[in-house]
Amino acid sequence: MLGPKITRVGRPLFLLTTLATCASTLLSAHIGQAHSRANHEAHIAQIQAQTSAIHSGNVVRAAYAFRGTRYVMGGTSRSGFDCSGFVRYILGATNGVSLPRTATEQYYNGKKVPNGLLQPGDLVFFKNTYKHGISHVGIYVGGGEFVHAANSHKGVRMDHLTDRYYQSHFAGARRVLPAQMRAAALTH
């Protein structure tokens, strides 16, 4: 015989075990569908909030709306961003500001902003983060904070310029938004 022998006494136990397994599988599938539906609804709500923020023309509001988006090296869309792709997408989508693709190229656009005179919507740059030279960029949102696509572990998030890591790598800031767009960024 190839399998265990089921005796008369063992048959009810076998059937009971099989029924319990089937019930457990069905319950898990039902819970999984409900969880999947909830995730889908949350995703739709997030996309609606992002779209609304972009259409507001407010760079800061749009940057906030994309927190939690995953990091993808070379990413330039809602499905995933790297740092410069995020900045380029937000400024392009909210205000039609055209920026180059990389943080290094973005660093040479706009006007240099002296330390202490940062305004919401300014771009903040960092050097020697994963490679030599300008290697990271984010959008200043006020109060010493900036939103950026941090890395593959953290995604798009907000951090503080006074964090030790960012202080030690800070390279400067640039102002690329025209005055009327900067004013809109102040009302977040």
What would you note in describing this structure?
With 188 residues, the chain is α+β, with helices and mostly antiparallel strands. The protein has 2 domains: 8-55; 57-185, endopeptidase domain like (from Nostoc punctiforme) (endopeptidase fold (from Nostoc punctiforme), Alpha-Beta Complex), CATH 3.90.1720.10. It is 45% helix and 20% strand. It has helices spanning 10-55, 59-65, 83-95, 103-107, 164-169, 179-185, and strands at residues 76-77, 80-81, 111-113, 123-127, 134-142, 145-149, 156-160, 170-175. Strands 3-8-4-5-6-7 form a 6-stranded antiparallel sheet. A two-stranded antiparallel sheet has the order 1-2. Strand 4 and strand 5 form a beta hairpin. The longest helix has 46 residues, at 10-55.
Q: Please name the CATH architecture of the largest domain.
A: Alpha-Beta Complex
For the record, what CATH class of the largest domain applies?
A: Alpha Beta
| Overall 3D shape | globular
Q: Mind summarizing the main beta sheet?
A: 6 strands, antiparallel
Annotated CATH homologous superfamily of the largest domain: endopeptidase domain like (from Nostoc punctiforme)
Overall SS class? alpha+beta
What is the CATH topology classification name of the largest domain?
A: endopeptidase fold (from Nostoc punctiforme)
> Averaged pLDDT, please?
84
Structurally, the number of domains stands at 2
Number of strand segments: 8
